[in-house]
């Protein structure tokens, strides 16, 4: 595939791409962009995610979302009714694995089997198998916005059908797909797929429809220093912005250190605004979200409840607008039911309401954490822009090729995988091995000192064994 630049897709090229995307599965024929715009404009304010977020901003209220989805329309209607009653503000359309992988035929077969047996046999909503009309059955049956929740290499057809079906947020991004859901697909190809999604969302935006563009992030079940996450969010945001997207929601998954989480949200918001402004994207609205980590949870439900409550406290402390509580307490010991998910949401909703106006206090320790986090991000981003001669799409691809941007323990054969992280004595993620990241000596020394503090407390050198112990212990890793 030819080199992909961070450049807006021309109208004629986009139309040709749409023909190919919509012809990939029969339900794509149901999408009529002009008709879809009329339908979305007819939705009441309370069913549009960006409007609900705007209202929450004025009220200084933290919104609650989650990760869920079932196979059949009936199962989803039951789920959404329970979630609405539990206080969830943004109802999730969690996408099944067949659809995420582009296996539309298998998704259709599994949906038919679920309908035949009268029970859920899928791990999400098969939006492409549904088609536009069935998606609208969900939209019209609920009183709150439906938002797509997914992560994959290619969500173009899914986004077309979901948005036309009345879902008002498009999810997924290039760097998450590349680092966590991919082995051999080049980053340039995945960027191109998401440029399409961004341009589609932008067309809705340009016609007065405030579709939200969400950039999720996953730690992939391992420990990841926050600067790598922030860099991914900024790269993806610059790519979205170039296509004309106007509403960006950036997500960070907490690894259960309060100060680290607060620092991450603050640094991410500051640098995202700075880099968007630097390239002329001044009018984009930035919304912050925090989520519970994807690192495995303890098997005890009470302990899991405590950890989820801790992340709710972080959400309030960091001043985010959305808390994405993607886990249910029941996931500690098995697959969650709609009832167990709703029970978890009731607990978190109560906590968020109590914590509504509370913020983590400013202080020298937080400032120092933010200063080093910001340095790390700038050093990686500036190297990317240098590689790309100012083009972030080219620079990101070259950075992964050289290891100037990297991830740890990823299955992707195109990533260097030379870095490693462990937790310090407070549970914050620190670099154990820097690989080829372009960090200055003061940044490296900062991380070494933090790990050495833990080592002195434990009477050992913190190396690979400690890092593996931290991963194996999940959220309960003790420094």
Molecular structure report:
It is a single chain. The chain is of the alpha/beta class. The protein has a single domain (11-354), classed as TIM Barrel, CATH 3.20.20. Helices cover 53% and strands 10% of the residues. It is built from 18 helices and ten strands. The chain has helices spanning 11-22, 33-41, 49-59, 73-86, 97-100, 104-117, 127-141, 156-164, 174-180, 187-206, 226-243, 258-278, 301-318, 338-354, 364-387, 392-402, 441-458, 464-473, and strands at 63-66, 91-94, 146-149, 169-171, 212-215, 247-253, 285-291, 322-325, 419-423, 429-434. Helix 4 runs parallel beside helix 14 (338-354) and helix 7 runs parallel beside helix 8 (156-164). 54% of the residues are buried.
Give the topology string: H per helix, E per strand. HHHEHEHHHEHEHHEHEHEHEHHHEEHH
Q: What is the CATH superfamily?
A: Methylmalonyl-CoA mutase
Structural class: alpha/beta
Number of helices: 18
The appropriate CATH architecture is Alpha-Beta Barrel
The total tally of domains equals 1
Keywords:
TIM Barrel; two-stranded parallel sheet; single chain; alpha/beta; 479 residues; six-stranded parallel β-sheet
How do the helices and strands line up, and which of them pair or pack?
Blueprint: H1 11-22, H2 33-41, H3 49-59, E1 63-66, H4 73-86, E2 91-94, H5 97-100, H6 104-117, H7 127-141, E3 146-149, H8 156-164, E4 169-171, H9 174-180, H10 187-206, E5 212-215, H11 226-243, E6 247-253, H12 258-278, E7 285-291, H13 301-318, E8 322-325, H14 338-354, H15 364-387, H16 392-402, E9 419-423, E10 429-434, H17 441-458, H18 464-473
Parallel strand pairs: 1-8, 2-3, 4-5, 5-6, 6-7, 7-8
Antiparallel strand pairs: 9-10
């Amino acid at each position: 595939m030819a080199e992909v630049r961070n450049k807006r897709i021309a109208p004629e090229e986009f139309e040709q791409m749409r023909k190919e995307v919509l012809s990939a599965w029969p339900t794509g024929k149901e999408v009529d962009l002009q008709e879809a715009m009329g339908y979305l404009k007819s939705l009441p304010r309370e069913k549009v995610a960006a409007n609900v977020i705007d209202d929450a901003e004025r009220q200084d209220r933290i919104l609650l979302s989650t990760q869920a989805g079932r196979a059949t329309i009936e199962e989803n209607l039951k789920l959404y009714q329970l979630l609405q009653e539990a206080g969830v503000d943004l109802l999730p359309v969690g996408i099944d694995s067949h659809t995420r992988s582009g296996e539309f035929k298998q998704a259709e077969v599994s949906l038919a089997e679920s309908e035949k047996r009268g029970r859920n046999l899928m791990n999400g909503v098969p939006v492409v198998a549904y088609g536009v009309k069935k998606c609208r059955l969900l939209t019209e049956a609920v009183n709150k916005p439906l938002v797509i929740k997914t992560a994959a290499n290619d969500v173009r057809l899914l986004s077309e059908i979901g948005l036309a079906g009345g879902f008002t947020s498009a999810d997924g991004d290039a760097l998450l797909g590349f680092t966590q859901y991919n082995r051999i697909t080049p980053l340039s190809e995945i960027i191109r797929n998401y440029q399409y999604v961004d341009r589609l969302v932008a067309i809705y935006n340009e016609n007065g429809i405030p579709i939200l563009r969400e950039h999720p992030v996953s730690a992939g079940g391992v420990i990841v220093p926050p600067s790598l996450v922030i860099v991914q969010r900024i790269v993806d945001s610059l790519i979205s912005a170039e296509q004309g997207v106007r509403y960006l929601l950036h997500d960070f998954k907490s690894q259960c250190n309060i100060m680290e989480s607060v620092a991450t949200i603050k640094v991410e918001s500051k640098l995202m605004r700075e880099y968007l402004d630097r390239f002329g994207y001044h009018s984009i609205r930035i919304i912050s979200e925090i989520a519970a980590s994807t690192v495995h949870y303890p098997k005890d439900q009470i302990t899991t409840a405590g950890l989820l409550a801790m992340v709710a406290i972080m959400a309030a402390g960091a001043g985010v607008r959305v808390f994405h509580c993607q886990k249910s307490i029941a996931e500690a010991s098995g697959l969650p039911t709609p009832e167990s998910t709703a029970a978890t949401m009731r607990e978190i909703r109560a906590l968020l309401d109590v914590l509504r106006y509370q913020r983590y206090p400013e202080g020298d320790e937080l400032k120092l954490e933010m200063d080093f986090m910001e340095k790390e991000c700038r050093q990686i981003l500036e190297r990317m822009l240098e590689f790309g001669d100012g083009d972030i799409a080219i620079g990101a691809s070259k950075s992964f090729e050289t290891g100037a941007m990297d991830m740890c323990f990823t299955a992707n054969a195109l990533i260097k995988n030379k870095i490693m992280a462990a937790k310090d004595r407070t549970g914050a993620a620190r670099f154990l091995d820097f690989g080829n990241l372009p960090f200055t000596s003061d940044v490296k020394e900062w991380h070494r000192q933090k790990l050495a503090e833990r080592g002195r407390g434990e009477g050992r050198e913190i190396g690979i064994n400690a890092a593996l112990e931290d991963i194996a212990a999940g959220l309960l890793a003790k420094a």
